[in-house]
Structures are given as structure tokens and as C-alpha cells.
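Checklist before submission:
- one chain only
- standard amino acids only
- sequence pasted in full

Submission:
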Amino acid sequence: MSAMHKLWAAPLFALLLAGLSFGAETPSTREPAKESAKTAPVKKKATKPKKPKVQKFVGNISSVNAKTGAVSVKGSAGEKSFITQDAAKDALERLAVGDRVRIQYSEKDGKLAATSVRRVKLPQTKTKPSAPNPNTEPKNQPKKL
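Returned file contents:
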């Protein structure tokens, strides 16, 4: 055998033995064939913590407390009370009762936690120019015949 073959044979033989040792099953992990046929193995699902679903709510502020970060908003779906966090708590200082707001929130431990509070501008209605009212004409000018 040449020297080159010897260099290749030694590592390959070592890998062969290592692979067989990993594939061998130890007696402590073996189950008797009769028991495994009777009971199906129970697989445990890895439970990942779910992110809370972000929801939106639009309405008018009915009460606000900037110190505690609590705000109550009355909308078409009823009145909801929120506890604000971080930047949303800072936004409460600029809001007042009666302001129309959109709140993004999620439910945590049975409480509604607001992550964003934004003032909503009311939609502007287009007004048509009305014809001058003859009863409101200025009295200084003479009436036309």
C-alpha cells in the first residue's frame, strides 16, 4: 500500500467507527415492542409566546389622566378604558376631553394597554356658497328697483 493510501485510510476508518457509535441505540432508551404498539408516543408541542394582536379603536376622549397614563375613550362600540405606555403616555399631555383620537392597543393580563394615541382630524365638509339673503342686505345702500 502506498503512503497516500495510508494517509486516507486512517481518517476514513476513524469516521466509520464514530458514525457507528452515534447510530447505536443504548439499552436504556429502548422500549419493548409490545408497549410501543399499545400506546402511541405523546408529542409535546413547543409553545411559543404569542405576540398580542394589535387592535385599533376610534372615539372621543371622555376622561384623561396624564399622571397615571389612564384614558377613557367613547366610540361607536362603547366606552373603553386604556392604560398607556411609553410614548403614548407622553401624548396624553397634549390631549383634552372631547378630542377625537385613534388608539392602537393590545390586551395584556386582562387590561387594554395603549401603544399609540393619535388625534384624528374631523373630515372637512365642503360647503356650497349660498345665495345672498335679501333680508340681510346692508341698510346704507339704496334698494334696486
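Reviewer check: The mean pLDDT is 77.
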